[in-house]
Amino acid sequence: MKFIKSILNNPIFKVSSLNTFSVLIKIAGGLLASKMIAVFIGPSGLALVGNFRNFIRQVEVFGTLGFENGIIKYIAENENDNKKKERVITTVFYSVFATIIVLSLLLLFFAGYLSELFFGKEHEYNWIFRVMILALPWYIGNIIFVSILNGLSRYKEVIKINIWGNITGVLLSAVLIWQLRVSGALLGLVISPSLMFFISFFLLRKQLGSFSFLSIKNFDKSILRGLSSYSLMSLVTTAIGPVVAISIRTHLIDNYSGNEAGFWEAINRISFFYLMFVSTLLTVYFFPKLSSAKTDKETGRVFWSYYKTIVPVFGLGLVLIFVLKNFIVRLLFNEDFSPMTNLFLWQLVGDFFKVCAFILGYEFFAKKMTKEFIITDVMSYVILYFSSHYLIKLYGSEGAVMGHAITYFVYLLVLVYYFRKKLFSRTA
Which end of the chain is more exposed for a tag (fewer CB within 10 A), N or C? Predict the structure, then answer.
């Protein structure tokens, strides 16, 4: 009891109560959406929705050019320098505006090809990519506005945007799924994020007064080069990650069935929800500490504070999830999804290795180790791709989660070896 009490009293678990509430709202919304999809669409429909969700994530990062972290840093550094701040916003505006035009044209001309690629020949969803053209400026605009507000240290406003966005998004998606089934689920993914634009625009205008400074004269190529260096890691991950996920899902559909792909998508959705707590704590608490750590010993202390607090609690949570897996599947989905209980063991094992590796992976961002990050990230996706494809042929959807466990076990070993000096400093 003393051990658990000491963990719970740790300041790590007292960080940002409003942000925790925002995460809980997002999880509750995601669980409700999963239940709606399970009831009205079924496992095969969930697989199609998963493919489109991966595509949207790709469009999101390419549409913003992966600038989010760079925007936050540049705005924060120049919060009191209005001219520099205006040049940053102007440079981002014109760069992203040009990107949105290019993406819109690609969506217009390749809608048929994209529909076949993501949904298969038996489904025709060309129209959803054309609807996406209309939603794209609002969706990308909201992401950029939120990043600027983050840079201005308007954290409460950002969290409130996320809370209201999640609430309205879930309600809209629920109605669309109820009325239109798969089409409604896809439409909800496109429209829901765009709704937050109007809130973020209003809050940002309150901060800046007006946008009259958005003149091409304020476009700064040096700022663009600086932002590009921050976007590289995001673009690499987003270019490869969803492609691998889509290939695994498609491989399951082609070799087994849409239901098998739906089971794999469902276990990944459950995983996403509980991993959100860890990723939030890493972003809010550990990432700043890693960034400020000057020596290997200081970095080692941050690593071990994570392993002594977060990892034990997370491990206990995974054991509880495994024990309650049948109840969880019935609660979040329905009886059609009962075969997915066979996927829990390997998924949970893989997620444990993943969480152990999380803190080490954040060191790449904290110290701007771009080359090292890209090499290890690409390596992990290559292992995931080949191990999953091979094991799927032998074990179906269970092979996909086996590949997940193998990938993060190897990834963890590689990172432990690479950061061994920092991990095992004497005073760490």
Answer: N
